[in-house]
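seq as requested:
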Amino acid sequence: MKEKISAVLKTLPERPGVYLMRDIDGKIIYVGKAKKLKRRVSSYFRHSHASPRLNKLVSLIEDISIIRTETEAEALIVEAKLIRRYSPFFNIDLKMNDRYPYIKITDEDFPRIEITRRKAKDSAVYLGPFVDAGNIRNLMRLAERYFPLRICRKAITPGKTNSRRPCVEYNLGRSMGACAGMCTQQEYRERVADVILLFEGKSAELVERLRKRMDESAKSLEFEKAARYRDTIRAIWRLTRQRISSALQEDLDNETWQVLNRLQELLGLEVLPWRIDAFDISHTHGHDTYGCCVVFEQGRPSPNLYRRFKIRSLEDGEINDFASIYETVKRRYAHILDNSEPAPQLGLIDGGPEQLEYAERALHELGLRLPLVSLAKREELIFFPDRNEPLRLGRDDPALQLLQRLRDEVHRYSITTHRNAREKRTRHSRLDDIPGIGRKTTAELLVRFGSAKRVAGLSVEELMTVPGIGRITAEKILAGLKEE
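struct tokens:
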């Protein structure tokens, strides 16, 4: 074994990651992934191999570098991206075909669901790719049981019955009977939308849709239907422990890849920061205080993952940004503990070392270990929990620019959240707080009399001149306003 290779093998960790093998010219000739880097890479040099191709590869290796990842699934993702980028000579298999499957929703009036390994340039919807075969099987089983779409390839015309009676799949509860006119196109499309949310990993949004239908069914005394929605919700939450990775949704461009690598190196991160959370606080003199979190995946914003928190620990008018950061971080990452949110590889706090200290305290109380840094705006200094001196980067450094984009985005989101809450509060009328007085009646009163204060000065008889307000309602309004 070459002396340089021997030295590299001694430093490899027993952790997941990707290894890159280079020849004497520094060219990448092979990229592989491993659950345990040290064990996998060392196996190449322990003995000769039956495959001449593999023996040739080993003889050409002059250097090995690695990229640590958090999981084996993430290593698969990184491996695939590197192979597509560098096309190593010895990675024929992955160069010639795409190993990861997609879920395909066909472009038809009544779409079908298929599994494919090719993402064609057509009008179909492609979800994935999926790196875990077991995960996609579990999702398919759940979809077939709770969200069944048709499997037949018949051409179905909307509004026209294409068959005398529904197929066997319908009788088994595995079809909506679209071919026999047992459902409308709108009902079917709603089912398709559910399936798309399921495979996109948007469990919370899907559950909310199902919960509304469950409540509507219960109110309509359709208890069997409501129970089915309940069982579906439970099945989805059970499956959310096996989350779909979004890291393969789009190919990572070379520039972003380099920025993430540089950020990992500068901040001393164990894994590449595929997902980064950023936090900020917004209020007006202590009123309408909100803590917000935005998420970047692969260096890009993921708005559907943004979260906002109305601060509960402070009195109205009380200003305490440190306590607000503490509460926001703690509430945000409590969702990691119940497996409803994936953990990021980096958290960014808008502020200085004090804000960072309170964020660290929140994580400590949750029993979580997560890399955190803060970015102070005036001098753009990066603070670390375990370092006395901050990191100062050049303004043109792409790693700093990425952190600035995160900080600016969370600042924008927190200001928008706070402004919307403030406007909603200012639009709120004392009339809104009176039980039994609807928005229509409130609007009618405000249009006619101008304000709740003027309404409070009216008599019962004067209020009764408003259409729809009788004596009992008028008395209730005046009594409610006097309690204020």
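The first strand starts at residue 17 and ends at 22.
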